[in-house]
Amino acid sequence: MGNVIEIEKPLNEWASAHFGAGARVEGLKRLSGGASQETWSFDVAAPGNTHALILRRAPGGVAMARSSEAVSLATEAALLSATTKSGVRVPEVLHVSPPGSALGEAFVMRRVAGETLGRKILRDEEYKIARARLAKDCGEALAGIHAVRLEGLPALPISSGADQIAKYETIYRSFEMPRPVLELAFAWLKENAPKPDGPVLVHGDFRLGNLIVNEQGLGAVLDWELAHIGDPREDIAWVCINSWRFGHSEKRAGGFGDLEDMLDAYAAAGGAKYTTADIDWWEILGSLKWGVMCMTMYSAYKTGADPSVERAAIGRRVSENEIDLINLFEGLGRNA
Amino acid sequence: MHDGPSARELIEAVKNFIDKSAAPQLTGHAAFHARVASNALATVLRELEIRPTAEAEEKARLERLLGTSGESANQLNALLCEAIRSGRMNLSTEGLLPHLKSTTIAQLSVDQPGYSGLKTAAR
């Protein structure tokens, strides 16, 4: 685990080199307890200016074998730079620290002000204007991400819709817990797979929770760990799945807006022209994936790997995804 | 066997202890887990009430849908999964989606009765 003392010295050395002699680190504190990633918040008081910054760092500064699909910190930093050039609002990267350096494997980016909690963004009065703009902002951001030239990007996992069905079906079958709704979703997705689109850069976890929202709308797109090369509709659908609408089911786009508006903004910003029906298959895949992920978290309890009550209880959330899948299937019937 | 206190009463007592005595003294991660623990006990209380009837109804529906009797809903669900996986049943199978919907609504009434998707399903 990284501690303040271990990090503060190399961070001060970097601050002096970057902002000039006299710059010093203040208010360094750990934000997340994430196992795969340390996130630290700090300020640099430099002559004439104070800079609000974030340090993303491998645990203890040493990259471990991360989950098979998570990209490295250096890749994450490279993606932030590439998407900035494509006009996407992301935090500016100031420094990439290589493995083996004093700071360890890490990067420093600017801290963007705003809120990430979905429930607050969808409920609080101060985000009223933001909510009205988010469908458009998200459509534009996704069009920007999907327009990034793949040449010149660091190596990324390739994952199509079919790849994901195969992957999640293998995981689901390994649990030997038959769930007819999930079974129906796997069978239906395979039977009705659309022709692949892209390939494009896919963010992979584009939803409330991973977006900084300020009073004026989208501030920055965070959490690029699951970025991959794939189908643009995956990202559009993921922000739509009911789990990420935080109770505001009536607004298909993230609980904040209409999918039509997001798709219009997406097309106007240079993305492909999709209809809401084009997103259905991908939203069904998204709900199914999240259901299997909940089963995976519960299986950590079942196998004894993580005995916490939280891991046990999450197994009782799979039925949320099952009702979402049923609602989506009924919706297909109505639209047909 | 006696039931004074009953399983329900014991769970209610433990839940009450967590909510009123333990949780207010906890902070951070432990406080979060206390909330999760309390919610888990609430799930068990709902399950004690809802499951016996809901599962019997589920089993009866499964027997009609599959045209066979079975030992348990669990065993019949394995058969249903196999029928779906093999393609013998699909979204257009008469009665399949209504059955799955009834079962999932009952399950959510136990698991997460406040979930937004449950309200959508009731429409």
Description:
- The complex is a heterodimer of chains A (336) and B (123).
- Chain A is α+β, with helices and mostly antiparallel strands.
- Helices cover 44% and strands 15% of the residues of chain A.
- The longest helix of chain A is centred in the last third of the chain and has 27 residues, at 276-302.
- In chain A, 44% of the residues are buried.
- With 123 residues, chain B is mostly helical.
- Chain B has one domain.
- Chain B is 74% helix and 0% strand.
- Chain B is built from five helices and no strands.
- Chain B has helices spanning 7-22, 28-66, 73-85, 96-111, 116-122.
- The model of chain B has no long low-confidence stretch (mean pLDDT 96).
- Chains A and B meet through helix 6, helix 10 and helix 11 of A and helix 2, helix 3, helix 4 and helix 5 of B.
Task: Give a quick rundown of the structure.
The complex is a heterodimer of chains A (336) and B (123). By secondary structure, chain A is α+β, with helices and mostly antiparallel strands. Chain A folds into 2 domains: 4-110, Phosphorylase Kinase, domain 1, CATH 3.30.200.20; 118-335, Aminoglycoside phosphotransferase (APH), C-terminal lobe (Aminoglycoside 3'-phosphotransferase, Chain: A, domain 2, Alpha-Beta Complex).
